[in-house]
Amino acid sequence: MIEFNDAGLTAMLDWDDLRFFLSTARHGNLMAAAKELRVAQSTVGRRLASLETSLGVRLLNRTPDGYVVTLAGERVRREAERFETGSLALEREVGGRDARLAGSVRVTCAESVANHVLAPCLAEMHVKHPDIMVELIPDARELSLSMREADVSVRLKPSTQHDLVVRKIGSMAFGLYASPGYLKTHGEMDFEAGCPGHHIVAQLDDLQDSDQTNWLASLAPRSRISLQTAGHEAAVIGTLHGAGLACLARFRADPEAGLRRVATPSPVPDTDIWLVAHKDNRRNARIRAVLTHITEGIRAQAPRLSPAD
């Protein structure tokens, strides 16, 4: 229980109630909060109403753009977040001493990495560690390891947060691709002229970073964007169906018989693969086992992720 005292507000609050308030305040809507908390949307609304009743004030105002925290809600949120920070730190410290090779470990990464790199790798881990259950979370967002949204993250950008342990474990090669049908219709690319008359499949997801985007923009400044997507898989499928030229990860595009890798004046920049965990979890046996298995699995896939040619 948390004792909360403020001008006009006095209550003993249950931390479980405050979790519903914090999640809604952060996301701005009940649906996202319900997804994060793994409950029904109606449950979130009911718990919020109960919390407001116990305090006797309104904590959130509903607007056309979502829920907005009130002045009283800001006071409650500050106190709740302070408690949350301490609670999570204690949980990580205690959990970091867990020597059992059993329990669950949440791993987050981009969707294409989850589907084509980590899922096969982690499936093999069950043979060696049958009591460890890995929850693989494909998410374009960088889930917070400090807030225990995930235990391990495989990222394509390094993190500078002081409480995280970050290690480079590989690299990922990209290429420029198009379908044979598209090339037949639009002809070969005139890179010196900036590829006039050609179309581009643009991506906004975290599998492709600014290096690839800037490289393609400088290579084909006179082309037009025909398709823009936030998913690497959607970009692959769109390119297969003739949407245009796309910068795609080679591990995903090379096996596709319906794609042709186009020769370019300069190579597409690679992307490094980073393994991230919270420093408090370094001594947790099951998390260390998952970190080791992911590292070995990605290094074993180096010829596919970053072909020598």
From TrEMBL:
The HTH lysR-type domain sits at 13-70
Q: Does the keyword Transcription regulation apply?
A: yes
User: InterPro entries per the record?
Assistant: LysR-type_TF_proteobact-type, LysR_HTH_N, LysR_subst-bd, WH-like_DNA-bd_sf, WH_DNA-bd_sf
Question: What Gene3D superfamilies does the database record attribute to this sequence?
Answer: 3.40.190.290, Winged helix-like DNA-binding domain superfamily/Winged helix DNA-binding domain
Biological processes per GO annotation: DNA-templated transcription
A GO term, aspect molecular function? DNA-binding transcription factor activity
Q: Which PROSITE patterns match?
A: HTH_LYSR
Tell me which Pfam families the record gives: HTH_1, LysR_substrate
Protein family (similarity comment): Belongs to the LysR transcriptional regulatory family.
PANTHER family xref list: HTH-TYPE TRANSCRIPTIONAL REGULATOR, TRANSCRIPTIONAL REGULATORY PROTEIN
Instruction: Indicate what this protein is called per its UniProt record.
Output: LysR family transcriptional regulator
**Which species?**
Lichenifustis flavocetrariae
